[in-house]
Amino acid sequence: MNRNRPARTSTYWMRRLFVVGLVIIIAAITAAGYSALASSSSASPSVSSSDAPPAAPPGEHRGALDESGRVADGVTVFDDGVPAVANLDPALLEALRQAATDAADDGVAFVVNGGWRSPEYQDQLFQEAIAEYGSPEEAGRWVATAATSSHVSGAAVDIGELDATAWLSEHGAEYGLCQIYDNEPWHYELRPEAIGRGCPATYGDPSEDPRMQQ
Q: What gap in Å lies between CA 127 and CA 135, rounded to an integer?
């Protein structure tokens, strides 16, 4: 039995040396990996201008305000600094803000595509409509003159986004807010008598509105 002991001892030490060497190799590989990871994490990633977050959400930092009543993207009924909103009839604006506050609970936002307009801007829109539709009569189905437009008097607002106009179609009368023309589902005016009684019948288009016959 003693004659086999040296062989077993030699095999035992060879195995120990193999295990120790393997542990050393694994430790070296692991250390190298951590070093590379730390190096890449400490470097500042490059960000292209197209990937950078916007400086401000829509409706903020729009630049110079347009005193004619033009409206930039993202304007809401709460933007007091925008003439198209600030110059609306106070009662209309109050009703719009009450409705917008309640609509927000349903996840709906009121974006203003048009509000108060100067006579000069309204006349420009009317002239552009004549060029597009071919005659003052046809243009009058879509755009009022400066002399007759309820936008110039601050008594009308154009609400953007389909979900907002759909919400107003269902709930607007509760606030006295009524759609006036069938062909303009975005155009709303204040009709206080609609509260409790519902909105009056709509006109087919502005050319049928007696107020436009001046």
A: 10
Q: Report the 10 Å Cβ neighbour count for 46.
A: 6
d(CA 184, CA 157): 11
Q: What single string gives the DSSP state of each residue in 52-81?
A: SPPSS-TTS---S--TT----TT-BTT-TT
| Widest Cα–Cα separation across the chain | 127
The DSSP letter of residue 199 is P
The answer to whether 137 and 212 have CB atoms below 8 angstroms apart is no
* Token output for 144: 């009022």
- Type of residue at 56: A
Residue carrying structure tokens 């993207």 = 73
| pLDDT tens readout for residues 158-188 | 999 899 999 999 999 999 999 999 999 999 9
**Rounded Cα distance, 148 and 137, in Å:** 14
Residue-level pLDDT at 134: 97
Q: Please name every residue paired with 115 in a beta bridge, in sequence order, or none if there are none.
A: none
Q: Look up the pTM and report it.
A: 0.69
Q: Which residues pair with 189 in a beta bridge?
A: 156, 178
